[in-house]
Structure formats: structure tokens, C-alpha cells
Amino acid sequence: MIVNFIAIYPSREDQKQLYKNVRHLPGKGLGLVVAQKCVELHGGSIEIASISCNGITVTILLPKVA
């Protein structure tokens, strides 16, 4: 699954914190933290494919259930 969304554009320094609950950034700050934990619990992976002024592309890979 690939998700594209428009969000607050993080600075280079803030990009290092994308998977952490950072209190100094506006917003709830839990989206990627919760998503990463859910994906990992299901044996998958999540990565930020690209960040631009137009938004963020997040790629989520989950194993196929037989």
C-alpha cells in the first residue's frame, strides 16, 4: 500500500524524528508512531518514500496471508 498525503512539511532535522512522538511539532504527533507499531506487529515494514513541499509518500508492506 502506498499512501500520499499532504501534511506539515517537516524540516530536515524534524525528518529524523518522523517515527517518534515529538511534542514540539504541531498536530497530534501519533500518526506514524502508531502506524509503524501496527505494521511491525503484523510482520511488515513502513518507510517514508519521499518528502516534498507537496506532501509525504509513505510505503507500507505487509506479508500476504495464505
UniProtKB/TrEMBL annotation:
Which keywords does this Swiss-Prot/TrEMBL entry list?
Two-component regulatory system
Q: Which reaction does it catalyse?
A: ATP + protein L-histidine = ADP + protein N-phospho-L-histidine
**Molecular-function annotations in GO:** protein histidine kinase activity
The EC number(s) given in the record are 2.7.13.3
Superkingdom as given in the UniProt entry: Bacteria
> Is Oxidoreductase among this UniProt entry's keywords?
no
Q: Which residues form the Histidine kinase/HSP90-like ATPase domain?
A: 21-64
- Which InterPro entries would you find in this protein's record? HATPase_C_sf, HATPase_dom, Sig_transdc_His_kin-like_C
Give the GO terms filed under biological process for this record: phosphorelay signal transduction system
Name of the protein described by the UniProt record = histidine kinase
What's the source species for this entry?
Answer: Microcystis aeruginosa PCC 9701
